[in-house]
Queue: 2 jobs
Job 1
Amino acid sequence: MRNIKLTISYKGTAYAGWQFQKNAPSIEEALLDAIHQVTGEVVKLYGAGRTDAGVHAQGQVANFTTASRIPPERFALALNTKLPRDIRVMESHQVPEDFHSRYSAVGKIYAYTLYTAPIESPFYWDYTWHIREVLDLRAMDTAARAFCGEHDFRGFMSTGSAVKSTVRRIDTLTIEDHSPEIQLTIQGNGFLYNMVRIITGTLVAVGMGKIKAEDIPGIIESGDREQGGITAPAQGLMLKKVIYSQ
Amino acid sequence: MRNIKLTISYKGTAYAGWQFQKNAPSIEEALLDAIHQVTGEVVKLYGAGRTDAGVHAQGQVANFTTASRIPPERFALALNTKLPRDIRVMESHQVPEDFHSRYSAVGKIYAYTLYTAPIESPFYWDYTWHIREVLDLRAMDTAARAFCGEHDFRGFMSTGSAVKSTVRRIDTLTIEDHSPEIQLTIQGNGFLYNMVRIITGTLVAVGMGKIKAEDIPGIIESGDREQGGITAPAQGLMLKKVIYSQ
């Protein structure tokens, strides 16, 4: 048996999320169907992270074991002939038996895109959060720095997932001004459920002057979900990359 | 009565094109519906150019006359509350009585975007033409220069529209390399039916080595549609701007 690692890009708009669901289309189901068509096998697919409905991915990772003799690098091409147009396997490789997309990951990079203009874009509304106000990017930069480092992020988590620890490390959090688009990029060793979207909502609240940048350390320390900003909408979020040590 | 000029952006994917059709959704119909809801009037809407099914616009222009007392600049906001998300009125102004979106136009700018990569993008396939081959951009640049100036473009026109003259002037035709995206931008005093898409298809044929750049002047002169490249697919085309003298 071979362990095959897939790197997958998808537009999440038409899906109920990564995870298989009985009565709604999921990315996982589309991939399982394609793998079944290509190999004849019903496999178990291990994804690096569950993206929610409407969330996109450029570099999602998943792995599965197969008895198929298809050369590992050929899976990308073969699966793409069976997949819908909004899901593409960018690469496929054979990896060691003990590689697990989720447990072997040492970090992740997410991007969140804001679209700041009086009128919403008719082109990119399924990739951005439309903000009518002009944001104070300098204040957002100051606030962003306060999130970096290791913190207990229990106040920046939606309920609905059981985790042992709510301590996570954010390595970098940058804000790039490509007006009218503002792109947030966040890299960390792991993220709690909705953590990126709540941090984004909090940074936008800072940009609007509703939360002060200097209050961020206290808000993190409070562990109180009520003190942060709203959970930014799903469509602006993109899983950019899953990081592995080798 | 006031003559109101609208500047409109839209994603054309879900529409059968600009022009009203009885059994298919059109941009024109969506705008007429919105104008009716806002003013109570059934107006005649004059568009600067008919975009085909799947073609997008950033700066389409249309005008209509109205007895409504809504301040001209407010139409954009008012219409946007009634329009679907993939159509936005970016600006609205009162213009002189004799302004006509089509007949007053002195030029147009179109962009065409190619996506050159082995694997199609799951994000931008409704905005780009996917090309697997690596294109020879230098040869395409040489070919592009041959299109500039005033020529009889009867060989770069699809049948289906009656025109008095097939002579048009191309002012600029540039090719920008933002790999994997390649953007063609073309400005001229007017374009025949499918002219931008046939020129694009011909330039791509040059980029693939199927047509030689130095043969372009002869192909234009021949007036023979068979000698050019294919008609590039609709989804890569964007009407960027309609130019008026004042």
Note: The longest strand of chain B covers residues 105-116.
Job 2
Amino acid sequence: MKMLINVPETVVADALRGLAACHPELTVDVDNRVIVRRDAPVEGKVGLVSGGGSGHEPLHGGFVGPGMLDAACPGEVFTSPVPDQMVRAAAAVDSGQGVLFIVKNYTGDVLNFDMAAELAEDEGVQIAKVLVNDDVAVTDSLYTAGRRGTGATLFVEKLAGAAADEGAPLERVESVARRVNELSRSFGVALSACSTPAKGGPTFELPAGELELGVGIHGEPGRERRAMMTSREIADYAVEVVVEDLRPDSPVLLLVNGMGATPQLELYGFAAEVHRALGERRVTVARTLVGNYVTSLDMAGASITLCQVDEDLLRLWDAPVRTAGLRWGA
Amino acid sequence: MKMLINVPETVVADALRGLAACHPELTVDVDNRVIVRRDAPVEGKVGLVSGGGSGHEPLHGGFVGPGMLDAACPGEVFTSPVPDQMVRAAAAVDSGQGVLFIVKNYTGDVLNFDMAAELAEDEGVQIAKVLVNDDVAVTDSLYTAGRRGTGATLFVEKLAGAAADEGAPLERVESVARRVNELSRSFGVALSACSTPAKGGPTFELPAGELELGVGIHGEPGRERRAMMTSREIADYAVEVVVEDLRPDSPVLLLVNGMGATPQLELYGFAAEVHRALGERRVTVARTLVGNYVTSLDMAGASITLCQVDEDLLRLWDAPVRTAGLRWGA
């Protein structure tokens, strides 16, 4: 597998150097692996910190900026960051109003953010935590006890980020984040495996002519493998399991997310089928976001995430955001 | 090659249905294949129309909206749209101030936009045309006489779009577009071929362990094939040929563009090397854009585009834009 890299060992550091060079509005500590908005800490504002293994970009580093995260901690590819990164991030963004840790539900991330929370509180930073566990595909898997955290992370970071931007106290920012997670569900499919730089080839085998239904963002196994399906059939399957689990009774935000290597031409065709399938189930879509946002390196495939919203959450979604990966109104 | 599609024959129509469903701010004529901003024609504003073969998304349909294009005409995959689409688009966006056609330099596109210009003028629409031909890799190739049009198309559409948004007359909008093209140069590399839905497999053979230097956005041959190079070596090669040709004596806009399947983690690492290589050649980068903007379906690889700017062009770059594929300040 050919990659646009120097050597596997420096992939994360090289990307961080690139982020620093391209985005002067960020402070990137390449050695300690912390990405912080340059104007942090923002006076009077609750700080938002997230992080996780690299390989899912723009999540999380691409979501640092006004209206979203204050800092992100990237680990090695598909590997949790360490507590030291999170403690540094918390210290860098705390204005005295406290810090929310947004943690995807993977065993390593959960343990390390827990430890970091204790260490940061010892240093006088008030910490709240929210766990993202939106993936309805499986409970308990290779990396996780319980449901995995995937696409809903974007919704949690955006909506809690907007609440913090409005000057909400830590309690409200945490409650928005928790609510968004509870109101969100995801499901993903893989048409191909992804290749990590360290391995230099596919992380799992997916035979020609088959797809993986319910795949995780590290290529973890899903619900089942089937003979290749059409975009329409995949949309029906994914919408069915997500709607069945969420049972939304008000409009939803819809993320149609590319896993990395699926062309936008295909992704929009898939989005058409997802809209159709939702319409047939009388689910109203308030806003749609289409693109590569929560990726798995060069995996081909897609996921959908629904987040049921009320007027408050919809207003937070529409609020300005200015990050490398998501930007409007600013 | 597995694809997230229904059948190859409906790929473009399916994507247009998706664009319509996800972006209510656009009017998408799926049958006639014209994408128009919903509020067109905008009173007193020059209209901008572009188009080309599908498979390069978000170019061009993802760049329709305030501050950029008024309409786009998608052809079949890697196939020029037909004059009828362009004539419809021109009629839909002309407010009486005239329309600029932005045409990538491929034989089919040039012929069809020429014919459309005549037909539209017969219908009373004043038409100006600008040809984009920024790719320094080769002159004359599979699809083109002269240089190919690639990444600079984004700069032309953004900067001319901003000029039109300010209320500039057709003459000035055309002159901005022409100037941006003259001040822009691109160079791309492929690590893998792309697969078209019709063919169902790679459009050309690229042996394991080799890359194509100077590849076109349809996988056309470039300057040479070499044994796989590092990100640093590729950046040095690409920056050398682009800077040698452009010889910029003021700051530049830099686009580090993914061909489709290259992970953002790799793209930012490559961006770091491009910044380094430009710095060593004393080229100052005013703004950088990193992402999949002018793609070749699922090709792995990247291209760089430089556009030399003065204060006027930099202001136009920073002006608000609100499209599916590029958005800020609005």
Note: The longest strand of chain B covers residues 47-54.
